[in-house]
Automatic annotation (TrEMBL):
Catalytic activity: (R)-5-phosphomevalonate + ATP = (R)-5-diphosphomevalonate + ADP
UniProt name for this protein: Phosphomevalonate kinase
Species of origin: Tetraodon nigroviridis
Pathway noted in the entry: Isoprenoid biosynthesis; isopentenyl diphosphate biosynthesis via mevalonate pathway; isopentenyl diphosphate from (R)-mevalonate: step 2/3
Biological function: Catalyzes the reversible ATP-dependent phosphorylation of mevalonate 5-phosphate to produce mevalonate diphosphate and ADP, a key step in the mevalonic acid mediated biosynthesis of isopentenyl diphosphate and other polyisoprenoid metabolites.
GO biological process, one term: isopentenyl diphosphate biosynthetic process, mevalonate pathway
Length: 195
């Protein structure tokens, strides 16, 4: 266990395919709850930081949703997997070490080892949330199938073998996101109140 100033009361551990809207939905939650209550943590944050450093790349562009990230994605996945094989909790520890808010929203769990790390460290607090939408919606958001990425563990590692506590449908023209997020926001506020 890390040496923290305070323990989180609730961790919403999000996963979903690329362009399903993980960043969009987690940003929405963070804005609704406010930064005193809630932070968004990205496991890909420290990964991209170190990858950019080692490869002399533009970190801001790697952090944004444009084509630059996609150009390096397959290689970043491979690089990250090598680090994770040596230490499965490596990026989880780095991403969470500065967090102090009572509610943590982790935007990008991808592998069973990510889920297992949070469940082992924070068994009472961790809730698994899946964001999903149709491939058609993902395509409208700029996705196209890329072999070596969309069929890799990075995208498929949580397709089976995990029981999600919450499922959010983020289809264009689908069920209202606001309505779907209400129970999660309520849980977050109640958990923080017990702080
Ligand atoms: N419900 C939504 N309404 C409008 N735009 C959305 C919605 N969900 C996602 N998007 C847009 O689709 C793109 C991909 O979403 P993003 O959150 O980056 O996906 P992911 O993090 O899962 O790859 C972004 O440009 C985002 O703003
Ligand atoms: C190498 C990665 O960390 C890159 C992830 O970048 P993002 O988390 O920005 O990706 P999406 O939101 O799905 O578009 C993936 C991994 O396997 O760890």
């Amino acid at each position: 266990m890390e040496n923290r100033r305070s323990e989180p009361r609730l961790i919403l551990l999000f996963s979903g395919k690329r362009k399903s809207g993980k960043d969009y939905v987690t940003d929405l939650i963070q804005r609704s709850l406010g930064s005193a209550l809630c932070c968004v943590l990205r496991l890909s944050g420290p990964l991209k930081q170190r990858y950019a450093q080692e490869h002399g790349l533009d970190l801001d562009q790697l952090l944004s949703a444009g084509p630059y990230k996609e150009q390096y994605r397959a290689n970043m996945i491979h690089w990250g997997e090598t680090r994770r094989r040596a230490d499965p909790g490596f990026f989880c520890r780095l991403a969470t070490k500065e967090a102090w808010q009572p509610v943590w929203v982790v935007s990008d769990a991808r592998r069973l080892s990510d889920v297992q790390w949070f469940q082992a460290e924070f068994p009472q607090q961790t809730q698994l949330v899946r964001v999903g939408c149709s491939d058609r919606t993902r395509q409208q958001r700029g996705w196209s199938f890329t072999a070596g990425v969309d069929d890799s563990e990075s995208e498929c590692g949580l397709d089976t073998g995990v029981q999600f506590d919450w499922i959010v449908n983020n289809d264009a023209g689908g069920a209202s996101l606001d309505e779907q997020l209400q129970p999660l926001l309520k849980l977050a506020r109640e958990s923080a109140d017990r702080h």
